[in-house]
Specification:
globular, 273 residues, 20% strand, eight-stranded mixed β-sheet, alpha/beta
């Protein structure tokens, strides 16, 4: 039986106790890249840690709901994660594009918003803007992510692109979401915190665990803190990375990346019985 990490905060310890006491009233929600799946230079080659999906499947049958909340398009996360056709994950919900898209494993139905005019306009300008930096553009359909991880100078390219990308986003009414050597331009109005709170209302969960690894997850961690004030116990889990050290201050427990997340899920499944 795997051991559970000990939260460093009183609220986190209370959240873990609530998860263990009443798993049938709990929601477990996780980011995809950097949390379930290791970060890789080519986003299309991302796959969950080998132990992650089996561990998620083990807890899925014991809790009120499991969800993946990601900046990726929902369909892409489902494909890369191998979530479709997995009987133990029949209740899984994948919220993509920071909650603007939704895929339900129970029905296989996918809902997506119409194309955003600002994204269409920015898509035409981005190649010329980033060409000299060595960055590449990941087209997410209704969002655009500029990755510098494969550039000759990843950190330098990231720093150099922040201002021109912010100006481009402002011209076209888009939000800017910086992350681990990536800057994303997306329609405003969706964030992981709002998505998480909506899931809690939908499932009537009395305890929630959220795990993430990047700046885009801060809104979800803040949502957990807000939910605690409303009587919903919560545990905020940082999928640890030296690239985003500030996340540890906004969470209750830190594990070692996707392998640690898989271990945490497996330990929960062991305790649930």
């Amino acid at each position: 039986m795997g051991s559970l990490p000990v939260p460093t905060t009183d609220a986190g310890r209370a959240g873990l106790s609530a998860l263990l006491d009443q798993p049938e009233r709990a929601l477990i929600a996780l980011d995809f890249d950097g949390t379930l799946a290791p970060i890789v230079p080519d986003p299309e080659r991302a796959r969950p840690h080998p132990a992650a999906v089996p561990a998620l499947a083990r807890v899925a049958g014991r809790v009120a709901a499991v969800a993946v909340v990601t900046g990726r398009p929902a369909e892409v996360a489902v494909r890369l994660g191998g979530f479709a056709g997995h009987p133990e994950l029949a209740g899984l919900v994948v919220l993509g594009a920071y909650g603007a898209e939704r895929w339900d494993a129970a029905t296989g139905e996918l809902s997506t918003p119409p194309p955003h005019r600002g994204v269409i306009a920015a898509r035409a300008e981005l190649p010329g803007l980033v060409a000299e930096s060595g960055a590449f553009v990941e087209d997410k359909g209704n969002a655009l992510a500029v990755h510098t991880r494969r550039a000759p100078d990843p950190e330098g390219a990231f720093a150099a692109l922040r201002e021109p990308l912010a100006a481009l986003a402002a011209r076209h009414g888009l939000a800017v979401e910086p992350g681990r050597l990536v800057i994303e331009l997306r329609p405003p109005g969706s964030d992981k915190g709002a998505a998480l709170k909506a899931l809690v209302r939908e499932t009537d969960a009395r305890a929630v665990l959220y795990g993430g690894d990047d700046l885009g997850d801060l809104a979800a961690f803040a949502a957990v803190a807000e939910l605690r004030e409303r009587g919903v116990a919560g545990l905020r889990v940082c999928s640890g990375s030296a690239e985003v050290a500030e996340l540890a201050a906004a969470t209750d427990v830190t594990v070692e990346g996707p392998e640690g997340i898989a271990g945490l899920l497996a330990a929960l499944a062991d305790r649930f019985g």
